[in-house]
Design goal:
Belongs to the TRAFAC class translation factor GTPase superfamily. Classic translation factor GTPase family. PrfC subfamily. Pfam families: EF-G_D2, GTP_EFTU, RF3_C. One of its GO terms (molecular function) is GTPase activity. The protein has 15 helices and 31 strands. By secondary structure, it is an alpha+beta fold. The protein folds into 3 domains: 14-289, 3-Layer(aba) Sandwich (Rossmann fold); 296-394, P-loop containing nucleotide triphosphate hydrolases (Rossmann fold, 3-Layer(aba) Sandwich); 406-542, 2-Layer Sandwich (Alpha-Beta Plaits). Strands 27-24-26-25-29-30-28-31 form an 8-stranded antiparallel beta sheet. α12 (423-436) packs across α13 (459-473). It is globular and about 85 Å long. Residues 1-7, 62-72 and 75-85 have low confidence and may be disordered. The structure holds guanosine-5',3'-tetraphosphate (G4P). Guanosine-5',3'-tetraphosphate binds at residues 33, 35-41, 59, 63, 104, 155-156, 158-159, 212, 272-275.
Length: 545
Amino acid sequence: MKLKVQPAQVQNNLLSEQLVWEVSRRRNFAIISHPDAGKTTLTEKLLLYGGAIQEAGAVKAKKAQRSATSDWMAMEQQRGISITSTVLQFEYREHLLNLLDTPGHQDFSEDTYRTLAAADNAVMLIDAAKGLETQTRKLFEVCRMRQLPIFTFINKLDRPSLTPLELIDEIEQELGLTTYVVNWSIGTGDQFRGVFDRRQQRIHLFQKTAAHGSKKAADTVISLGDPRLESLLEPELYHQLKEDLELLDGIGSELDIEAIHQGKLTPVFFGSAMNNFGVELFLEAFLDYALEPTAHESNQGEIPPTYPEFSGFVFKLQANMDPKHRDRVAFLRVCSGKFEKDMVVTHARTGKTIRLSHPQKLFAQDRETVEVAYAGDVVGLNNPGSFAISDTVCVGERVRYPDIPSFSPEMFAFLKNADPTKYKNFNKGVSELQEEGAIQILNSTDESKRDPILAAIGQLQFEVVQFRLLNEYSVETRLEILPYSVAQWVTDGWEALEKVGRLFNTFVAKDRWNRPVLLFKNQWNLEQIIADHPDLELSPIALPP
Ligand code: G4P
């Protein structure tokens, strides 16, 4: 009997069935928050409930030894802050979650922006006592720009807080984001009694956990109609709850998954990460409402995640994560097809062929070799200098994903090599850190000033560069801070600049591609130049050529 389908086709069909299944079970997300809102705590508790760790304790350890599970570098440990992004993968029920961890410190927002370019969903974590804070607002704007679905987790309800209505109101009014309350807080602070879960119409009673909830907590659940409820809650809380629920059902928004996926409606959760309270409820609902990996825009049109050919883009580079091996890793977000260890791919920018050997999955200090990965996953690739931020790698037809915009620097300083005999190490270190995207480097147009100019978003970026040059390249450096705070690229180049002649109060520098960049003392100076030279085309950011 003649076969209707040929073996190759059978294989293709099997692959596509597997692709569809693998993509549909994946959910990828990043947490955005202001430092101290509890991101480390929530991350850990998600891992605890996802079974990736058996016991949480990194926050405690962070306090004791100034180190945490997702911290790598010695400097992070000294300061107890999280600088580098890590990617944590865990399974929950039949789903596979990828948590793209973002640096908490505000000076590292550039890395966070890049990580958000690789994320499909964002979790906005808010401290219930403080409400919206600056870093959260900034990052929210990036999410909005990318139209990411946003889930809101309001944390620390066990402490004196704003009222749930005040918090909801702030999100709606200040961010212009419609909310859909998934669970509702019953009391706050000393009077925090639990949450009402609107999905199951049940009340989860709050219990403080021992040891900051290092182990999973017992969950006591009763229905709304349970006669015990009235005796379990103080009379005013009981009445408040009844009133609130009527209000929510009466004037609150409807659940609209489409609007969540478009980033227009945020599901809201209340809880206490430290006490493991509300974490599982959050996970359950998140899996139902979050966006699975979707199509990515490319120069060849939209590439769906189930497209059979593999493709992905680099969103972060990191050097020397393991001090024992002095290595470099490029983080690749898989966008389509099936990634396999040792596969041969095309590097879209250069057209070169590369074998992807030693791919890694990173879980804090531990590394595992990745055999396969699908859309929504992140793979760490050994990067012997071949990758830059935004590079696409693919199999088959050469696709290119759009460049991730880099943000306009606001602080500038000459970087001086304190020991001229170490000039080789100095140059190597500076060039590697620039390539990695740790910092932008500019140069003076004045030939007598050879020192590179560090261009950063925040002060801490300077310190990291100096620290890493010393630790990884054995070079001591000094900074000479420049009195500028605004950078603008001249979009039509040197000729345009020559035409306008001498500019006052302005520093003329060039970027790594020899394009002119003007540095201004302040916004006012910039506006003056714009007014005086209407023909000059300026832009606060520039994409790689
Ligand atoms: P971050 O990564 O966003 O910077 O925050 P992190 O998780 O480190 O949490 C910051 C502080 O907030 C920690 O306290 C942490 O224990 C506390 N925290 C996190 N979630 C909750 C919560 O649900 N309720 C309460 N009451 N606190 C919470 P710390 O001062 O660093 O240490 P410790 O007081 O826990 O010893």
